[in-house]
Structure formats: C-alpha cells, structure tokens
Amino acid sequence: MDTLTHALSGMLVARASRRQNPQTDGYLSLRTRMAVGFLASAFPDIDFIFWFFGDLNYLNHHRGMTHSVILLPIWALLLSMAFAGLWRGRYHWRQFYLVSAMGLGIHILGDIITAYGTMILAPFSMMKFAFPTTFILDPWFTGIILLALLLAWGFRSQSKNIAIAGLVVLVSYVGYQASLQQRAMEIAQAYAQQKGWQTAKIDALPQFLLPYHWKLVISHEDKYHVAYVNIRKTAQ
To answer: What average pLDDT does the segment 2-17 reach?
Structure first.
C-alpha cells in the first residue's frame, strides 16, 4: 500500500479509538492524536532509505524490520518517546504509546493484503507473508478512508461513530475482494484441471483500479501460464 494511504488509515484508527471525554482523563487532544496516528502509520516506510544503497538492498530489506509484528512494541516505544520530545513534554510518552502501536499495526495489515510480501517475523525470519486481496495502489481502498475522515470532520458530534463505520466498511471491502480472489482461484484451478495439471501451483493477483480484474498465474513444469480475467464477465 502507498505511504499516504497508510498514513490516512492511521488517522482513521486514531479517531475511531479515541475516548469520548479525553479532557477528563488527560488523553491526547484530537488533533494531536490524529497527527500521531498519521505519522506512526507512515513510519514503517522509512525503510525506503535502502533504495539509496541499490535496488537489490531495497528489495531485500523493504517491508522488513520496520514492518515486523515482533518489533512493533519496540518501534511504538521509540516513536512514543520521539513524539513526547516533539510535543516538548506536553504529554508523557505513555500517552503516545497506544496510538503509535495502532498506527504501526494498521500499516502492517495494509501491506499484508498486497502481493509484495511482508516480513512480519523479522528479525527471526525473513519469510514474506502475503494475502494478496488488494492491489498496492487501490483508489477505492484509499477513497473509503478519505471519505470517512471527511465525514467525521464535517459531522463532529458523530465523528467517532463515523470513523468506526469507515473501518467497518474498509474491512468489508477487503472481505469482498477476498471473495473475488477465491472466485479467480477457482477459474484458474478449473483451467489447470482441464489441462490435467494436477501439481500446478496457482496464484490470483489483484489488478489496478477495478476489483473485478485479476491476474492468474499457473506454474507447471517450469513454465508459467498467465491470463487476465474479469470476474464479473466470466461469471456471466
């Protein structure tokens, strides 16, 4: 997922998780909380610096240490301390911790649902995990987040509920994409069975702009067979 979408998702989860009466319990102001959510959720992509050391280094290390679930508590702590300094001691670092952790967490989730792969177990394992339901640039995904934020800003008395509803719609959208992926996999499996490729490996990858468009990749006997399908037209 692109960094801006990650950052906006961090704002949305920060807004959805804020208490109703933060003035009485010393919690972050709404503006501060959303700014922290934005920055924390953008942070893992700081590993772009590996690009300056060559394409191979970037490919090997991108979505690595900064995207690790295991290291998430440590990153959240470091970010919390940095935010406490940035806000010049107005808040204790503990007040930044939860929203920082949530921002990091939603970033990792946003990357896992794309095809690139994310090393969520780094540094103990460099295995890349991916459940590719969503294209890396998805205007619908980004649009849901942005619309929820705009509505929350416009209807401030219901902003928390609107933000929660936005997250529910976002999860539902990804669930719908997962159902389309399953349909794409079934199409590829049917083709492989028709050809008698019993040991074929099958992948279905989302494509840009329209959730109905999928790239099917069938690996069989050191050969790759690729097709692009429109699920909606195929189902008719």
So the answer is: 96
